[in-house]
Amino acid sequence: MAKPYKNLSAEKKEQVAEMFNNISPKYDFLNRFLSLGIDILWRKKAIKILQKYQPKTIIDIATGTGDFAVEAMSLKPKKIIGIDISEGMLQIGQKKIDRKKLTEIISLEYGDSENLNFENNYFDAATAGFGVRNFQDLEKGLVEINRVLKPNGVAVILEFSQPEKFPIKQLYNFYFKNILPFIGKTVSNDTSAYTYLPESVGEFPYGEKFIEIMKNCNFKTVTQKRVSFGIATIYVGIK
Fold first, then answer.
1. How many Cα atoms sit within 13 Å of 212 on the Cβ side?
2. Nearest to 130 by CA among 39, 4, 211
3. N or C, which end of the chain has less CB nearby within 10 Å?
């Protein structure tokens, strides 16, 4: 199991929280810079998929600085609750929500995605952007997401995958394993965070494997949409 800090004995969940606390001041800048802004387009595509479901209550899992929650405002929901285990990320996200005057709709809360503090059948939809990869127990987290969704509720999960065709695969691997960690640690001053990123992506069961896992976690139908040559994938699961 990939962990951010290999020299520490703490569990993955604790290490992930510490890592995001450390990089939170630079996180949004690095996201835009390292992805060339493509991550914004990926979120827009994910939210567009949700439009036909017209969800009124949404939980944003591993919300980070709230980008997915903010994007979901285009759905005109009544309530969005974003949860995360990193206080640092939530603080940055709250400033963003305040600045955009979205506090009546979006609330950010400290919370563990693998132990959600909500009743069964509570939300119309769930979103997760680049967060499930960081779960300590992937299946447990997915079962929890399913539990808090209403019957026929929808989960839209955006996560990194791996391109499989030449030359995108080779270019992607070189960038992810060499360029990205160097820039990331230089800007964020965390030498481990952007080494952990490619390691966790390489370990993640993307594509058909992840679809099978979602189905085993009580989602009755799951589809996928690969974006940007397979650099990322949008998974849609129906409860």
1. 5
2. 39
3. N
Q: Count the residues in the chain.
A: 239
**Composition of the chain by helix, strand, coil, percent to 5:** 50, 20, 30
Cα distance between residue 161 and residue 140, in whole Å? 21
Backbone φ and ψ for 154, nearest 5 degrees, come out as -125, 135
Nearest-Å Rg of the Cα atoms of the chain is 17
Provide the token pair at 133. 């990869």
The architecture that CATH gives domain 12-238 is 3-Layer(aba) Sandwich (3.40)
Bond into 198 cis (ω within 30): no
Instruction: Say if CB 184 and CB 193 are below 8 A apart.
Output: yes
Dist CA 185 CA 67 (whole Å): 22
pLDDT tens string for the chain (239 positions)? Answer: 889 888 888 999 999 999 999 999 999 988 888 787 899 999 999 999 999 999 999 999 999 999 999 999 999 999 999 999 999 999 999 999 999 999 999 999 999 999 999 999 999 999 999 999 999 999 999 999 999 999 999 999 999 999 999 999 999 999 988 898 888 888 888 888 889 988 999 999 999 999 999 999 999 999 999 999 999 999 999 99
Cα separation, 171 vs 155, whole angstroms: 31
8 A C-beta contact, residue 228 and residue 150: no
